[in-house]
Specification:
With about 525 residues, the protein is an alpha+beta fold. It has 17 helices and seven strands. It has a seven-stranded antiparallel β-sheet with strand order 4-3-2-1-7-6-5, covered by helices on one side.
Length: about 525
């Protein structure tokens, strides 16, 4: 299906008509039907997005992927919206049916892993009993034959234990193959997208560059001085900003629209402006306005040939190096708490989704079970919030509601999910704190963070699985290379300082909100010593 829908762009341009095409489970949009040959300006996958009908506007439909994309659309009339809803719903249903087999296989393999882990726990208990039996035999001074029989039993149990562990790892490797772990678990929204890197400010140009440009400007001026009315030199073609990154146009940057008001909205000329052209214009302005000052600097350099230009302020270089934590779509440091220290539910969950890629950067295969558990807890809380958003504006309101209904400590409750999500976030926070303090041994940082947070809640088998994952952790160079917004930024001198700068803002806010949740669970005695 294809046709015109009005898309919310931003608070300056408002609603703008766009040409939308639904094909192959993807909804794409263009400036107009005539400009479709230029390529789409953006798209969204129907299989993973939520289709929401507006409660008051009969022409509006919202397509959202929490933490990543938000399409706010309006049809020409209610009948046209109904056609789009049918088409979108049909596309989503067909794609869901195609995923049923894969989800079923994943579920079966997950159950098989749980069965194998139960067997491992059984063999572990059996080994402990057999070892204690050997100790008792030595204390009683039993015969050598009795000790030999017990030793054979221990050997047999160990052999069976290792075989079962091998089968468990085989199922895990088959289930969480590389083509599956690169995506979020079935049914969960994809993780947050990274925003484009900001254009480097003009003040970052060093004095040497300004001098060279001034010399070129002087030469051009001297050549053109004898000609009146000389035409401005032709500027080279500059690639369009939209052609480079269609999904980062101005209309994608603002928040949701305000309540609808009648009347058309005029498109402003400023939409889609090219920052590279603006930068070139500023450079030309420097050549004109700073000509006298630069010439004076040149004369000073001639009079003092041995004088060396002062080095550029390293803070200027560092300011331009963005990292993963400065380009996240949602951050804990951006959350504004309520007056009563309430943590907004949606903002908190979006920030949790945004930090999930850190687990992929540590190892997408070995940390796949950890990621699935982490995202699963976010989804449980999100489902509780979606059941009545007005009643659950904060995380505290969800917990207090389940306390009043005596469901807080029920299996798979939102309170239990928040308990484990908080523990997982605490683990990531401790790990990032180690990196922030200068620790370059990723394996050691992960091990220290695990020992201070999750280890006390894990049984013998889960500790062993986690130990295998820690052994496969990447090197410091590989991990930091995965935290750049543009390839090669980790080699810049300001990257390390930029990382510490971003973490020094991100981690305190994360610690503050986790501390609020700690106090809440302590106040109502919701902590659990259950070992998994």
């Amino acid at each position: 299906m294809e046709g015109i829908l009005h898309k919310w762009t931003n608070y300056i341009s408002g609603w703008q008509p766009r040409w939308f095409v639904l094909d192959g489970g993807t909804l794409s949009y263009y400036d107009s039907q005539e400009d479709a040959w230029k390529g789409c300006k953006g798209s969204i996958k129907i299989s993973v997005c939520e289709i929401l009908v507006h409660s008051t506007d009969i022409t509006r439909v919202d397509l959202t992927i929490p933490g990543e994309q938000y399409f706010y659309l309006r049809a020409i009339n209610a009948a046209e919206r109904q056609k789009w809803l049918v088409a979108l719903g049909t596309a989503k249903a067909c794609l869901t049916d195609n995923r049923t087999r894969r989800e079923k296989e994943l579920q079966e393999n997950t159950e098989a892993i749980k069965t194998k882990m139960s067997e491992l726990r059984l063999y572990c208990d059996l080994l402990l009993k057999q070892v204690n039996k050997i100790k008792d035999s030595e204390e009683r001074g039993d015969s050598a034959e009795a000790g030999e029989d017990t030793g054979n039993m221990v050997k047999s149990t160990c052999t069976t234990f290792l075989k079962t562990l091998e089968e468990c790892m085989h199922i895990a490797n088959h289930t969480f193959s590389s083509d599956m772990v690169s995506q979020s678990p079935p049914g969960s929204p994809p993780v947050a997208a990274i925003k484009p890197q900001k254009i480097k400010p003009l003040c970052h140009l060093n004095l040497g560059e300004k001098l060279r440009e001034s010399e070129e400007a002087n030469e051009n001026q001297s050549q053109d001085s004898g000609r009146e009315g000389a035409e401005e030199p032709e500027k080279p073609d500059i690639p369009s900003h939209r052609d480079q990154a269609p999904s980062t146009a101005l209309e994608e940057d603002d928040g949701p629209p305000a309540p609808y008001t009648a009347g058309p909205v005029t498109q402003l000329e400023g939409e889609g402006s090219n920052p590279e052209q603006e930068q070139k214009h500023n450079m030309d302005q420097i050549k004109e306005d700073g000509e006298d000052e630069v010439s004076r600097n040149q004369r000073e350099m001639v009079s003092a040939p041995d004088q060396i230009l002062p080095p550029q302020d390293p803070l200027l270089e560092e300011e331009g190096v963005d990292t993963f934590f400065s380009t996240m779509s949602h951050r804990f440091s951006d959350i504004r708490l309520e007056d009563d220290r309430g943590i907004p539910t949606q903002d908190f969950l979006d920030s949790c989704y945004a930090i999930v890629p850190v687990l992929d950067k540590l190892g997408s295969t070995v940390f796949a079970p950890v990621k699935m558990d982490f995202v699963g807890n976010i989804k449980k809380i999100n489902q509780k919030w979606l059941s009545d958003p007005n009643s659950f504006p904060t995380l505290q309101s969800i917990v207090l509601h389940e306390l009043q209904t005596a469901t807080a400590q029920v299996r798979n409750s939102a309170t239990e999910a928040l308990l484990w999500l908080r523990r997982g976030l605490r683990f990531l926070k401790e790990f990032l704190s180690e990196v922030h303090s200068g620790e370059q041994d990723i394996h050691g940082a992960l091990n220290n963070a695990y020992g201070r947070t999750l280890r006390q809640y894990h049984g013998w088998v889960v500790r062993g699985v986690f130990a295998l994952a820690l052994r496969a952790s990447p090197s410091y160079e590989s991990f930091t290379a995965a935290l750049v917004s543009q390839e090669g930024d980790q080699l810049k001198p300001g990257f390390t300082s930029g990382m510490r700068r971003d973490l020094s803002v991100y981690l305190p806010a994360m610690e503050d909100q986790l501390g609020i949740l700690d106090d809440l669970y302590d106040e109502y005695s919701l902590e659990s010593d259950e070992v998994v």
